[in-house]
Structures are given as C-alpha cells and as structure tokens.
Amino acid sequence: MQITPLAPSCGVEITGVQLADAAGATLEAVRQAIYAHGVALLRGQVLSPEEHIAFAQRWGGIDINDYFPLTEEHPEIAVVRKREDQQTNIGGGWHTDHSYDQVPAMGSILVARVLPPAGGDTLFAHMGAAYDSLPDDLKAEIEGLEAFHTADHIYASDGVYAQTDMGGDLRGQGMTTGATHPVAIRHPVTGRRLLYVNPAFTVNIVWRSRADSRPLLDRLFAAAMDPAHQCRVAWEPGSVAIWDNRTSWHYAMNDYQGHAREMHRITLSGEALAA
Ligand SMILES: O=C(O)CCC(=O)C(=O)O
Ligand SMILES: [Fe+2]
Fold first, then answer.
1. CATH 3.40.50.1010 corresponds to the domain 2-268
2. What mean pLDDT comes out for the span 89-106?
3. Residue 110 CA: which ligand 1 atom is closest?
4. Domain boundaries of the chain, sorted by first residue
C-alpha cells in the first residue's frame, strides 16, 4: 500500500489496496490517512453495491441521508445523480455534509458510477490547514464560540433546491434540522484543531443574529477557501473517494451541462464534536 499526496495540504491517493478486501491493518491505515488528510482517492476499484455496503459496515456504522434519493435494492446507498437534462447538481458549493446534525456523519464513501466525458471533478479543502492559516487575533476571537447549523434553507419546500430542477428528486422537504458545534473543533481521533463552519449550513454564531454573524463567518469562509488548502479529485471509472467531514469541506463542480453523472454514496456515522 502506497500513500501519496494529492496536493501540499489536502488529500492523498492510496494505491495497492482493493477496498472490497480491505480489513484489519489495511483498513486502519486507510482510516488514519483520511482522518489526517481529509480525503483519499483510490482508483481502479472493483466494488459492487454489496461490496460497497460491506466495506462501510467494516468501517463502522452507516447513516441514511434524509434528502438524497435511495436505491430501491440498497437503502444504505444514496444516489447523487444529475441527469443530462438537469441544470442543478448536488453539492455544488463549499460544504461539510451533515453539520446540521448534532452528531454529524463522520464522512462518506463515494463511488463513481456514471461520469461525464469531461468535468464533474470534486474539490476538497483541508480545515486543519484553514485553521492554521488564520491570523492569531482571529484564532483568539473564535476560541470558545459556537455556531448554529441548519439545512432548512437548502432542502425545505421553500429552500434553495426546491426552486431548481433538482427539487423534485430530493426527499425530506418537510424536515427541520439544527445543531450547534464549536467554531473550531478538535479532531476526535487525530486531535488536530479544525475550522468547523461551512458556507452551506452554518447560519449564525450562537447568541448573535444571522446579520451580526455575517462579518465573522465571511472572514472565516474566505480564509478557508484559499486554494492553498485545496485538492481536486478527477474521477475515472473505478474511482472511489472517501472523505472525513470534520477534516475537510468539499465542492462538486457543475461544469458538464448536457451530460449525466451518477455517484453512489454511503454515509458513515460519526460522533459528537468538541473544542
Ligand atoms: O458528487 C460529488 O462529487 C459530491 C456530492 C456531494 O456533495 C456529496 O455526495 O456529499
Ligand atoms: Fe456533500
């Protein structure tokens, strides 16, 4: 097994491993690489839906996403699909999955099933690098602060997706969500300090109005979006990416209009987060 960086501060490519067989010490090494680097790309994987589920079960618990369509045969697998006639994609802005849950999902295992002829890459950003890059006064300012996260403005019946041609494909329009987490968390395994706010779901600092929270959140988002913290996954048939929602943000590029793209996602259970 070989682990090589995808970019200076974010992501690794792992070779010499077939996830369908990975267990024991191999699985543990894959896990640690993802916790530390935010995302791992593995190419040339032969992974049926059943093997995808079995690998996720070896990792730990599976969370069922409340919004994405599920496959009929395998409710554990969410379908991240854009049809060739759709304009809007899923995840087309910087975000951290499930931060609106009080016990947020650890991460996801995304398997490429249908790819456009070009484009459709996924960008990742490392939130440890983002935190480290903050000036000392900003680090001091966020110490002890918590932020409120919700998905209602994204997925509710009057939310962002409902106004688009993706709205009809999503579930959970009647749900309400909300959670508070420290603005800077400590990774539950590596112990590294990480920025844990994101532009999609973080709407205010606790005890501040949304409007009063904007200047601080915008400063943090701008620092986190620095390309120096980023890496890019260019998908091929057989590519699988596994990411850690605590260590990383991600962004699904929507640059393949007129073509279909379909990914299978299993969401891995996580744990409560602390500063
Ligand atoms: O389609 C992708 O590359 C990622 C979409 C996304 O944000 C997700 O599956 O959580
Ligand atoms: Fe996502």
1. no
2. 97
3. 9
4. 2-268
